[in-house]
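Example 9 (inverse folding). The structure is encoded as follows.
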């Protein structure tokens, strides 16, 4: 959910922008709106938005005055204004986009999609970085799984198995099943190699969740799933299971 603050001193323009945003995307939340510089600074610091729509000319000053009072503007900015001469200065303060009033819905949609993509990628990077840092010292390692709608952080020990599904991977865990948006090789490289083994082209299993080697060269897992073993992998898998 994208958290948005609207800073606009014309109420009609603010209401029009709000309606267009609500029509264009259901995955947003307009957490605050204001027309005042001091209040805008307070709201940004308090609410930590992902995206700010910022009018340049305000009654009490300008959008640039607000930005100068924010210590770390770690949100994305889309400027809105009726005055084109501010464009160069706007982009010098790292504006994501610049929309001229009256705002065109198509241009707004393009700007919103651009913002969503950048913010999602940045959040994923921060999640991955946090997990990576913690994994360096942690006994119980974690992994970040991204789906088309959500992001999950789960303990690797809770993963029973992975199954390839084309460009996607099905994670079967102790608590839930998750279809993650990368192929199985991508996750094989991320997971703890001392815990997981590739028993088949389409399957990766947590060896601690293996109950026994089943008949006809298959593995019986703790949740009752029966997974095939490739002929080439069988000697390595048998040896590893005997060692553990």
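The amino acid assigned to each position is listed next.
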């Amino acid at each position: 959910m994208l958290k948005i603050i609207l800073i606009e001193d014309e109420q009609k323009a603010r209401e029009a922008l709000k309606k267009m945003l609500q029509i264009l995307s259901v995955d947003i939340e307009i957490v605050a709106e204001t027309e005042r510089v001091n209040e805008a600074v307070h709201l940004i610091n308090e609410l930590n938005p992902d995206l700010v729509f910022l009018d340049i000319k305000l009654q009490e000053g300008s959008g640039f005055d607000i930005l100068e009072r924010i210590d770390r503007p770690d949100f994305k900015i889309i400027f809105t204004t009726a005055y084109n001469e501010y464009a160069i200065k706007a982009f010098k303060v790292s504006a994501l986009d610049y929309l001229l009033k009256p705002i065109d819905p198509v241009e707004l949609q393009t700007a919103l999609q651009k913002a969503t993509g950048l913010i999602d990628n940045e959040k994923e990077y921060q999640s991955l970085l946090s997990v990576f840092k913690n994994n360096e010292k942690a006994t119980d390692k974690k992994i970040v799984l991204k789906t088309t709608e959500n992001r999950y952080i789960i303990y690797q020990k809770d993963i029973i198995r992975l199954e390839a599904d084309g460009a996607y991977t099905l994670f079967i865990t102790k608590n839930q099943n998750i279809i993650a948006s990368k192929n199985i090789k991508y996750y094989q490289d991320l997971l703890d190699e001392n815990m997981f083994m590739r028993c088949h082209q389409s399957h990766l299993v947590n060896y601690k969740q293996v109950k026994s080697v089943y008949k006809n060269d298959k593995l019986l897992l703790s949740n009752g799933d029966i997974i095939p073993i490739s002929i080439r992998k069988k000697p390595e898998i048998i040896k590893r299971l005997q060692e553990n």
